[in-house]
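::Encoded backbone::
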Amino acid sequence: MKRRTIRILCLQETRWKGSKPVEIADDITLFYDGVETKKNGVAIAVDASLKDHISSVTRVSDRIILLRIATAEGFWTVVSVYAPQCGCTKMEKATFYEELDDVIRSVPKSDYLTIGGDFNGHVGRDRTGFERMHGGRGLEAVTERE
């Protein structure tokens, strides 16, 4: 993070149990949330320059965590997410997207919002209907949605 001057970093598949802030290196604090099974897990690593400006940490689940940071321009809400994979149940997927929707709706409209994470999507080369959003440089096949 220091070499690239990254001040905040969203992480997925952390697989740590519990939920607490941990100093992982000089001047870097990791806020995480994980379950006893050591599956999934999300975290946000924060540089010391932002640590004292964190106004709240909300651990929604082992797939969603958010920080609200006070900046000179206003509040900045950062959300780290890890979406269920293709092999997960429809219920797990629905729960994740409902929780994410609730989180997004709960963020004050005046906040800057950043969502970083792994949505487990595989985008194919076919860009028909998505020309403005898709460069056509994906894998051969698009992930099937269940």
Observations:
- Strands lie at 8-12, 21-25, 28-33, 42-47, 54-61, 64-71, 74-82, 112-118.
- The domain at 8-118 is CATH 3.60.10.10 (Deoxyribonuclease I; Chain A).
- The chain has a mean pLDDT of 85.
